[in-house]
C-alpha cells in the first residue's frame, strides 16, 4: 500500500502539460524519469541518461519504488520547468532531435542539455556558432572506399565548406557552396554510428561525400555548424523571412532510399538494380549506395504540371525481375521502376505522392528547366 501512493502520484504527474511526451525526444507516453533532473523520459532516452550518472539517475515510473522526497521533487519540476531551465538559449539553427532520429543525435542533444549545459551558457556554443570551423574528419575515398583523414574548413565569410587532401595543401580538393549544402546522418549506410553524408551541387548535379569522426560530439558539432552557416546565408538571401520559415530549409533527411530496378528511356533494355535516393524533388540513382555521384537524376514536379505516379507498369513491359512496378509520368516521358516487395512499392508511391501533391516553388521551375535541357 505504501508503494501505491507514490506510484499514483507519479501517474497523476504524467498527465500534466509537458509531461505527456518525453522531455528529450518527444516520444509519447514516457514511463521513465530522471529523479535528479525532474524530467519524464522514454525508455530509449533513459538508456542515454544512464550513461551520465553524475548528472542523471533514472527510475521506471511503473516498476521501481519511489520515496516521497523523490515524488515531491518530480512534482516541483517536470518537463516544462526543465525545458525553461536547460533549453533557455538554444540557437534557432540548432537541430533538436525527435524519437525517429539516430542514436548519436539524441545522445549528444541530451549531453549538450544536461551535462555540458550548452543552452544555459552561450559561450559553450562556440564550436558551431562561431561562423568558422576547422578540423579533421575521416572521409571515404571515391575510388577505393577507404576512409582517410582529411582537413575540412567551413567559413561563413567565404560561403563555403572546403576539404583538403593534404593538411598543408594550398588548394582545396573541393569547394562546396553553403547555398547548396546538405548534411544528413547515415549511420547504417556508412557503417559507422557517427556517419554523416554531406551533399552539394557541382555543375547542377549532386555530389556525395561520406565522413565521420570518432568523437560523436565532433560530428554533431560539424552538423550544427553547417546548419548555422546555412541559416545565416538564408537570412541574407531572404531578408523578410522569419526563423520559422528558414529553419526547415537548413538540412533535410531523404524522403526515401532503397533499391529498385529501372529501365532506360527506350524501355526496351533490361531492368537494372540501382540504389535510389529521393531528395526533395530529385530522384537520384546510384550503382552503389556510397557512390560519390549519381548515375542519373529524375526531376519530380507537381500534379499541376502534369506529373503523376501510377501503381504498376504498362502491360507490354518486359525485363523486370521484381514484380511490384511503379510508373512515373512526367510532361516528357514515362519512367518505369520495379520494387522487390509490395510494402517497398507502397512506401515509394507514398513518397512520390507527397512531392507531386505539393505545388512547385518559383526556384524549382529553374531546376526543372535545367533537367529538361540535359543532354
From TrEMBL:
- Does tRNA-binding count among this protein's keywords? no
Compartment(s) where it occurs, according to its Swiss-Prot or TrEMBL record: Cytoplasm
Keywords of the record: Cytoplasm, GTPase activation, Metal-binding, Repeat, Zinc, Zinc-finger
Q: Which GO terms describe its molecular function?
A: GTPase activator activity; phosphatidylinositol bisphosphate binding; phosphatidylinositol-3,4,5-trisphosphate binding; zinc ion binding
According to its record, what are the GO cellular component terms? cytoplasm; plasma membrane
**Chain ranges of the PH domain:** 130-231, 253-357
The record ties this protein, via InterPro entries, to: Arf-GAP_dual-PH_domain, ARFGAP/RecO, ArfGAP_dom, ArfGAP_dom_sf, PH-like_dom_sf, PH1_ADAP, PH2_ADAP, PH_domain
> Record keywords: Endoplasmic reticulum included?
no
Primary localization: cytoplasm
Domain Arf-GAP, which positions? 7-127
Which named protein is this?
Answer: Arf-GAP with dual PH domain-containing protein 1
